[in-house]
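hey so i finally got around to running the thing on that chain from the lab meeting. sorry it took forever, my laptop kept dying and i had to restart like 3 times. anyway pasting the input first so we r on the same page abt which one it is
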Amino acid sequence: MTAAKKSKGLRQCLDIDQHIYDLLVPISYLFQTMIRTSPRLLLAALALLAYSSSTVSANELKGNPQAGESKIASCIGCHGIVGYQASFPEVYKVPKISHQNGAYIISALNAYKSGERKHPTMRSVAQTLSDQDMADIAAYYEGHGQAVSVPEQPAAPSAKVNELLVKGGCNSCHGANYSAPIMPSYPKIAGQHRDYLFVALKSYKTDGNATWGRANPVMGGIAKQFSNAELKEIANYIGSQPGQLLVVPQAKFR
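ok and heres what got predicted. didnt touch it at all, straight out
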């Protein structure tokens, strides 16, 4: 069978127009090439496609930080207290969220609301929020606190940690300094609490647990490559780097 006949047969099987088929074929070849030559680039491309397809409706909503300030009563009891620790499924500091990317905050809240992330407390909070509530809260926290400048490059890791970081392709998505993700729906992670990063990474390895775990397929595929000891080394290094994330005490807790 000639290439032209194969092409026509596949197009008819997929039931798509010729111009769409002509666009998909080179994209397919590009992905095949990236699989062979640059898995990290492929990961970034897949992340970009996922972000593009999942945030269209979210981008239609404009968050109002002033409105968001009136909607954070459920947030400040944990995220507005310096050093506050959660106790489930183990003891760790709750994440810093001031100056986090707003689109990531929305993405995370939606993941809790849908059950992709299973933490019971966060699920109960997220389920009370509308899309506009999430947008407003995210806008508030994205600009919350004093902006901090960070180096463009992080401190050099040990050879062992560097090998782990390269294997995970960490800076392919989170940026060279781990404070400049390639897309807004990915989090800044430099300077995040080390124990939180460790617990979060382990949660992507958790399957079949009704009350704990995260079902993100990209992060799951990455985290499952590593032992928990290796994940802890990654978390300790990234958490030790200067970052923009803050815990800003809320007025009632000062």
